[in-house]
Amino acid sequence: MRGDVLPSGLKKALDDLRPATTRPRNEGELLRQAEARVESLLESVRVPLCYQSPPVEMCTSYRNKQGITTSDKKLLDTVKDSLQKRIRKATNGNRGT
User: How many Å apart are CA 52 and CA 48, to the nearest integer?
Assistant: First the structure.
């Protein structure tokens, strides 16, 4: 480049991908380097707590509607439960748990 200052994200990515200049002296040092690299990659993709949405609550007003059969209510309840499980799973995945 022409001596321009690199954006911090690009500089960090280059540093992360650049091979180490010295080889690890032992297996413990290699393990520490690997853990540090993986941790830095994970930190870059984690969703900060401030960006996470509040828990989702499902509205079950359909249960009070006239003309809905018991089997329809059961089907709607099954869909609601499935959605809640998917949302919980996705939310827990974003929190790293």
Answer: 7
Let me know: does 52 contact 95? Beta carbons within 8 Å: yes
Residue 53: C-alpha distances to residues 47, 83, 95 (Å): 11, 16, 11
Q: What is the pTM of this model?
A: 0.40
Burial of 80 (C-beta count, 10 Å sphere; 0-12/13-18/19+)? middle
**pLDDT greater than 50 at residue 97:** no
Question: CB of 93 within 8 A of CB of 46?
Answer: no
Rounded CA separation 8/11 (Å): 5
b/e 21-35 (16+ beta carbons within 10 angstroms → b) = eeeeeeeeeeeeeee
